[in-house]
DNA sequence: GTCTATATTTTGATAGAC
DNA sequence: GTCTATCAAAATATAGAC
């Protein structure tokens, strides 16, 4: 992605995480970046292209930030779990943005088919990764699950998504703090809130 | 609210819960209801009026469905808690809609000030009600909280919101099922998934 | 790659007849 | 209360000069 394309994608992503996909226009981006809408169309022919590009970049970065556990090292499951929470914990630094995938899911029926598929894949993949870590960590004796790993993974992902949304409308970081700390305390033995 | 106004509000709410607020137009509603956009403007002068009316109706219905606990009856805390989950469990019957407040929170920065305030109040009020029930139920010995009532309440609300969003993009009801059952199992002693 | 200019469609909204 | 007619602005997008 070129420098300009990256700047456009950055600006778009930021605004979508605040307002939602359908509330951001090429005109908004053009003004913000000091260019014309035609220039944006050169880099991203249509809005759906821009949306998909930003979403793909976002999900790729998300999965690349995850640390894979090594089955022979029990503690690596804890490290893997923490690598999952770290980027989400970083969202506490902004009270006006939610996860891009959560926002786009809210607007699901108005998204392009490509974006819809990408969203579904994001949650499925995330769910599978987390369940594997929870399962392995439980077997290794370094994590405790209140229920089946798959179900606990889904509950956790839902809680974190919900918290990043609610923190926008309440301006209250405690929803995300409580979700992060509460889930950590539930899953990592000895960890207390 | 008149019969027509109610029909407009119903249609609007349903579409917003699927697509998001900014993806629903007066033209969509007019076509769906077999009337002209001018007729809708008669009942709701502006889109923000319609959005606020629908949101107010939604939150009022939500709180009216809650059963208040009676401090002298321990079991009433369990009943109160169940009355909170029941309408959310009902959302399992649709895989294409999310909670109106979650959707609007996703689009928060593009909402009118009135709507923003209503959203903040909804989560604050819900949070307070649930924390009171969890606290009372714990003291009465019929509920168990893994942490402080206030924090557990926030975690639960976040999990349920997130689950209704994710179920749209995954077409997978298990996110909401696992959130409902998992939280219930966590809070009601003896209840097992 | 970015611009000017322009086109098309949609959106949110109003005036006034019926 | 609903309609026709109309509107101004915005959103998405393209053609072609520079």
Q: Residue-averaged pLDDT of chain A, rounded? A: 97
Low-confidence segments of chain A, given as residue ranges, are none
Order of helices and strands of chain A: HHHHHHHHH
CATH class of the domain at 54-187 in chain A: Mainly Alpha
CATH architectural name of the domain at 54-187 in chain A: Orthogonal Bundle
- DSSP, total strands of chain A: 0
CATH homologous superfamily descriptor of the domain at 54-187 in chain A: Tetracycline Repressor, domain 2
Describe the global form of chain A. elongated
How far apart are the first and last residues' alpha carbons of chain A, in Å? 42 Å
The helix content of chain A is 55-70%
Rg of chain A, please? 18 Å
Share in β-strands of chain A: under 5%
**Number of helix segments of chain A?**
9
- Predict the CATH topology of the domain at 54-187 in chain A: Tetracycline Repressor, domain 2
Structural class of chain A: mainly alpha
Q: What's the quaternary structure here?
A: homodimer
Largest interface: A-B, 56 and 56 residues
Largest sheet of chain A: none
List the helices and strands and how they pair.
2 copies of one chain form a homodimer.
Chain A: H1 3-19, H2 26-33, H3 37-43, H4 47-64, H5 75-89, H6 100-106, H7 113-139, H8 149-170, H9 174-187
Helix pairs in contact in A: 1-4, 2-3, 4-7, 5-7, 7-8, 8-9
The structure holds a DNA duplex (18 and 18 nucleotides).
């Amino acid at each position: 992605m070129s420098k300009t394309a990256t700047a456009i994608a950055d600006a778009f992503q930021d605004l979508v995480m605040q307002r939602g996909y359908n509330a951001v226009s090429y005109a908004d981006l053009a003004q913000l970046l000091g260019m014309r809408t035609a220039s944006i169309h050169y880099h991203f022919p249509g809005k759906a292209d821009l949306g998909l590009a930003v979403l793909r970049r976002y999900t790729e970065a998300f999965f690349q930030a995850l640390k894979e556990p090594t089955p022979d090292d029990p503690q690596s499951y804890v490290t893997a779990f923490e690598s999952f929470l770290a980027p989400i914990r970083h969202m506490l630094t902004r009270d006006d943005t939610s996860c891009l995938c959560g926002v786009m899911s809210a607007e699901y029926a108005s998204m392009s088919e490509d974006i819809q598929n990408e969203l579904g894949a994001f949650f499925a993949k995330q769910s599978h990764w987390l369940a594997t870590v929870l399962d392995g960590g439980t077997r290794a004796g370094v994590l405790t699950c209140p229920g089946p790993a798959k179900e606990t993974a889904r509950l956790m992902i839902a809680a974190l998504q919900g918290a990043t949304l609610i923190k926008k409308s309440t301006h209250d970081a405690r929803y995300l703090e409580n979700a992060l700390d509460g889930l950590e305390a539930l899953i990592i033995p000895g960890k207390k809130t």
